[in-house]
Amino acid sequence: MNIVYIYIYICIGIVALWAVFNFYRSRKNKNRVICVVESNCTGCGRCLKRCTRGVLEMQKTETGTFAIAKNPNKCNACGDCLNKCKFNALKLEERTIQMFPSLVFLNY
Ligand code: SF4
Ligand code: SF4
Fold first, then answer.
1. 10-25: b or e for each residue (b if 16 or more CB lie within 10 Å)?
2. Which end of the chain is more exposed for a tag (fewer CB within 10 A), N or C?
């Protein structure tokens, strides 16, 4: 078999596995949302760079700078930002109306 075809099959396999993994992850975390533990947050900003959905934002207060979940309804609970935080300041919680009164539940 031509080496090019083998290469193409391997690439297709990797993409398929990646798609299945992401689908499984989105289903598993469907009703979860990111939350910031302000007392642990150092304001380093690493999580903001990782999130491509614009969920997180930095907030400056008199007590310091820390991340906040500015747009929680955009969060698909992918968990990518969790891996970037070295200070255990992010966690995924169950979505509740009480947490986000204006929350719009999305179908992913
Ligand atoms: S990566 Fe962690 S410590 Fe840094 S801003 Fe985000 S939540 Fe805060
Ligand atoms: S879990 Fe994903 S979508 Fe939600 S804030 Fe983190 S990186 Fe963004």
1. eeeeeeeeeeeeeeee
2. N
- Four-residue CA torsion sign, 74, 84, 21, 97: negative
CB count in 10 Å sphere of residue 98: 7
pTM across the whole model = 0.70
Each residue's pLDDT expressed in tens, for the chain with a length of 108 residues: 688 999 999 999 999 999 998 888 777 777 899 999 999 999 999 999 999 999 999 999 888 899 999 999 899 898 999 999 999 999 999 887 655 544 444 444
Q: Which amino acid is at 50?
A: R
- By most ligand atoms within 8 Å of CB, the mutation choice from 34, 39, 47, 82 for ligand 1 is 47
Q: How far is CA 1 from CA 24, 45, 80, 99, in A?
A: 33, 49, 38, 57
Residue 77's CATH number: 3.30.70.20
Nearest CA, atom 8, ligand 2: 51
Do 88 and 98 belong together in one domain?
yes
